[in-house]
Amino acid sequence: MEHRGQHAGHDTIPMGMPGHDHHKMMIEDFKKRLWICLVLTIPILIFSPMIQGFIGYEWRLPGNAYVIFGLASVVYFWGGWPFLKGFYSEVKAKGPGMMTLISMAISVAYFYSSATVFGLKGMDFFWELATLIDIMLLGHWLEMKSVLGASKALQLLVSMMPAVAHKVQGDQVEEVKLEDLAIGDVILIKPGEKVPADGSIIEGESYLNESMLTGESKPVKKGLDSKVIGGSLNGNGSLKVKVEHTGKDSYLTKVITLVQEAQKSKSKMQNLSDRAAKWLTYGALAIGFGTLAVWVLLGFPFVYALERMVTVMVIACPHALGLAIPLVVAISTAVSAQNGLLIRNRTAFEESRKISALLFDKTGTLTKGEFGVTRIETIDDHYSADELLRLVSALEQSSEHPIAVGVVNKAKEKNITIPTPENFQAITGKGVKAQVDGKEIKVVSPGYLKDEKVTVPEAAFGSAAETVVFVLIDDKLIGYIALADTIRPESARAIHVFKKNHIKVMMATGDNEVVAKAVSSALGLDNYYAEVLPHQKVEVVKALQAKGEFVAMTGDGVNDAPALAQADVGIAVGSGTDVAAETADIILVNSNPQDIANLILFGKATYSKMIQNLIWATAYNAFAIPLAAGVLYSTGFVLGPAVGAVFMSLSTIIVAVNAQLLRRKISGSR
Q1: Are the beta carbons of 497 and 596 closer than 8 angstroms?
Q2: Kindly report the CA angle at 206 between 573 and 367, in degrees rounded to 5?
């Protein structure tokens, strides 16, 4: 149930804006109406003559009919108000759907039942009215909760920017709001701070972490005249930056715009249950009034003909149809979450069965997103790999350089005690040196070996994606350590599964050509795109869609957000940014690419169960409505209001039980 008349447009309004707050208020409003109506339904059921007749007891209050009428009136006018309001919107838009069907059913039940209280011969349907409104409120609330959060992505993008900037004016530095920055202003960025605006460095140097903006896996060294991007994270150096872009012209704002546009274009999906409700509305109205007319024309009393029509309308009440989708969604969401999949967009989840092309981001998705040690090799038998790592860690432990961090993390992982170095010195542009355990240790680049005419071991460079540092002890080459953004061990297995299922697997990354090619070759991808910016990732997705592919995009960074929104199914890995997670349709909690295979299986099982429930809900109506209308009257069989209501309840129970069977089906498909 989408009920677009009430919610259209809310999907793309940033959190904190009126539309988002309104959406949250509506969810709370439905929750409050549901609980209050449930409380009022209990006495309606207990004191209903029809229910008492079913169960076989009798307990009446003084003025029993009027008490039930009063309670049911509150449920109808207050609990049913969202549906009556939705009915008006659908009629105004000339697009009858679920709201029209619900409103028609509850109105016929209410006014007919009220007439029986005040003299019309017949049996009231107040209990039917109350339970229908309860179930519809429950279904609507479940659905609205399942889509809450779609607009958070834009607010999270905005929150990447700091609140203030340090503006330099002569010898003074003052804090100013971002909106007060102008092109040409000079700003100071302190160590560990976020960059407040796009610009060029005019003083200082530092390593900037841009991985969540550009996809570059390791912090990038920036110096004089280097460009910086607003939202990136500064390392351990101070920078003075001349502002070049602010506001709508900034890189991050352009990313926000791309996300907005992609979300808007995907919000036009129409729901299966809405289409079913539309045709059921036409059918119920035609058969209901047709039934009334036929019985009157046949000479039967108007009251009898009215009872036939009301029975038809009651049976047309979409209890089962209203629960067919939300129940399956609620169950599949819960079961999938237990298996590492968080579903945010159920339409995309249902359609994951159609995926024909998977486009992966590299950093943090196929790879770990960390600059880690891949190999430690010694060329001197007196030193083991662990000893080499211990000595190198001593020199690197005080550095913020990505290579240093990777080496120290490896030593900590192996529980190696790191010694304290003495006489530490930097070898300009080539490495570092220090005294450790009475020996002079140097950790240097290949360029240093070349300058010193030291032969580089043939096996040193095993992969184009690796960075290699060499270790000299007392000026003798002892070994080397290779580092790279390591590929997740489960990535290769996942890609094997996708190819087995005839799904094309590609990669789009902001990283350089050498690294991208190395990762693609190692994993056997069908294709890769290197050094792509956010708008180019979107273009890659659009190009694949234009070829007829049903595209799933998997990523973890801000740079992936627009492509995640544009893709038919956007999948964020849980270890990534909140922005990517809020833009995506589905989140992989464990950041395991193999979970995407489970996603496809779960999607197929969920869609199948939804179709079964829709078929049952509509087939029941197709069978029962003619019986209620009296097509078998000549044989002596007429489906009475009470029996029709029981069958309706049975239909609802069957749909609910069938939805519960989804748990077993999903477990069996893994």
Answers
A1: no
A2: 25
Which pairing describes strands 239-245 and 467-473: parallel, antiparallel, or unpaired? unpaired
At 335-374, the pLDDT tens digits run: 776 666 767 776 777 788 889 999 988 777 788 767 788 8
Both tokens of 127, joined, read 């209990």
Specify whether the CB–CB gap between 573 and 378 falls below 8 A: no
Long-range contacts of 633-639 (CB under 8 A, 24+ apart): 638/308, 639/311, 639/315
Report CA-CA distances (Å) from 64 to 42, 47, 116, 480. Answer: 14, 7, 13, 90
Q: pLDDT tens, 50-87?
A: 777 777 778 877 888 899 999 999 999 999 999 898 88
Cβ neighbors of 160 (< 8 A, separation 6 or more) are 194, 212, 231, 252, 558, 579
Q: Bridge-partner residues for 425, per DSSP?
A: 433
Q: Dihedral through CA 242, CA 248, CA 254, CA 256, nearest 10?
A: 120
Q: Is the pTM of this model over 0.90?
A: no
The string over 360-399, giving b where at least 16 C-beta atoms fall within 10 Å of a residue's C-beta and e elsewhere, is bbbbbbbbbbbbbbbbbbbeeeebeeeebbbbbbbbbbeb
Distances (CA, A) of 602 to 432, 454, 588, 598: 53, 58, 13, 6
Distance, in Å, from the CA atom of 63 to the CA atom of 61, rounded to the nearest integer, reads 6
181 in the Ramachandran plot: left (φ > 0), alpha (ψ -120 to 50) or beta? Answer: beta
Token pair recorded at residue 554: 């998997």
Per DSSP, the residues of 538-607 read HHHHHHHHHTT--EEEEE-SGGGHHHHHHSSEEEEETTS-HHHHHHSSEEETT--TTHHHHHHHHHHHHH
Whether 361 sits among the annotated catalytic residues: the reply is yes
242 backbone φψ class: left, alpha, beta (φ>0; ψ -120 to 50): beta
- List of residues 6+ apart from 644 with CB closer than 8 A: 311, 314, 315, 624, 628
User: Can you tell me the distance from the alpha carbon of 565 to that of 559, in angstroms, rounded to the nearest whole number?
Assistant: 11
Residue type, 440: E
pLDDT in tens, 485-541: 778 888 888 898 888 888 999 998 877 687 788 889 989 999 999 878 777 889 999
State the CB neighbour count (10 A cutoff) for residue 163: 10
CA distance 105 to 655: 19
pLDDT tens per residue across span 570-585: 888 765 545 555 677 7
Q: How far is 608 from 603, CA to CA, in rounded Å?
A: 8
Distance between CA atoms of residues 87 and 613, nearest Å: 24
The pLDDT of 436-457, averaged and rounded, is 90
Active-site residue, selected from the candidate residues 124, 198, 274, 361: 361
**Spatial CA neighbour of 529 closest among 493, 560, 550:** 560
Predicted confidence band of residue 21 (pLDDT cuts 50, 70, 90):
low
Query: What is the greatest pairwise CA distance in the chain?
Result: 115
Q: What is the pLDDT of residue 265?
A: 42
Q: Is residue 263 predicted with pLDDT exceeding 50?
A: no
Q: What is the mean pLDDT of the chain?
A: 79
Residues 294-309: tens digit of each pLDDT: 999 999 888 788 878 8
pLDDT, one tens digit per residue, over 541-557 is: 999 999 999 999 987 75
| Location of structure tokens 């907005």 | 260
Please, where are the H alpha helices in 477-533?
A: 489-500, 513-523
Residue for token digits 């001197």?
380
CB neighbour list of residue 464: distance below 8 Å, 6 or more residues apart = 514, 515, 517, 518
- 183-207 pLDDT, tens per residue? 999 999 999 888 988 899 999 999 9
Instruction: Provide the pairing of β-strand 198-203 with 227-228.
Output: antiparallel
